[in-house]
Amino acid sequence: MLHSKIDLNLFLVLVTVYQEGSITGAGKRLHLSQPAVSHALSRLREKFQDPLFIRHGRKMIPTELCQTIMPRVRSSVAELESTLRSIGEFDVHQYQREMKFGFRDILESIFFPELAMDLLTHTPNITVNSRQVSHVDMEAALENQELDIVIDVLSPTSENIQHTLICNEHFSLICRQKHPILTNMSLANYIAADHALVRFKDSAVNTVDMALAQHGVARKFALTCEHYFAATSVISRCDMLLTMPNAYARLLKQKMPVEVVPLPFDVPVLPVHMYWHKQAVHDPLNSWMRTKLLDIAKRVIPASQLTI
């Protein structure tokens, strides 16, 4: 049973200080004075018998207890707020918030040109912060609200993480214009060439090389790096070949003198999913953003790869 002397507004203050990282920032967002925010925190500190935040320079750093309870507190506050919003229509302009994404650079290049222009034009109150996140860190980042949404290849997750398939990404061959292989596209010529490989720090088994292994052959690599843009810049000036996701390859073709063609062998498609924590299910802004990203996928990803 909830203690009868607990003011639920205190938890809204707690969440806002956590999000803003400062008492001053929380006060401005809640239209409260700094002493009022400090007083609210003092009341919660007394109830929890914990400082909840420790000042470090200008930042308020959450304690271990605060970080432990915060997912449940945020979920509960969002649920209570949703009961009021459900009475009327959702209006995204009522929110001023930074949406935090976990995107690799390849996905930023696909989604952000459309997303950024849309937000700047229609909802400048919503800003975006994107960073790369490893598969092993993804779930914790979503649970701790370090990230709101992640888009990446299919990965195993717990029941706390919800996800939906956005597309099945195909692989294509990208090479310089007038490359000799364009006149005789064969597996033998593909294997005979030097290749560039883009490898991420936390990448799993390479599906392309697994497909080649089924034919009893392997590629030879003359270059290994972490970014497709850099690799494409190199192969546009020499006879190296690059195998990469088709959607991004077609974007790079618009910027560099390269050709994008089908591979001379079959490679399994790469499922790309959008992930969010179950505590964000009732967050109307998170839901609104997920819908927007799905709509963008329909516009920028070739129809043959879409599964939505």
Automatic annotation (TrEMBL):
Return the InterPro entries for the record.
LysR-type_TF, LysR_HTH_N, LysR_subst-bd, WH-like_DNA-bd_sf, WH_DNA-bd_sf, YidZ_PBP2
Q: Which UniProt keywords apply?
A: DNA-binding, Transcription, Transcription regulation
Mind telling me which CDD domains this protein's record contains? PBP2_Nitroaromatics_like
Q: Which Pfam families match?
A: HTH_1, LysR_substrate
* Single GO molecular function: DNA binding
Residues annotated as transmembrane: none
Q: Return the Gene3D superfamilies for the record.
A: Periplasmic binding protein-like II, Winged helix-like DNA-binding domain superfamily/Winged helix DNA-binding domain
Q: Where is the HTH lysR-type domain?
A: 6-63
Top-level taxonomic group: Bacteria
The entry assigns this protein to a family as follows:
Belongs to the LysR transcriptional regulatory family.
The name under which this protein is listed is PCP degradation transcriptional activation protein
Taxonomic source organism: Paraglaciecola mesophila
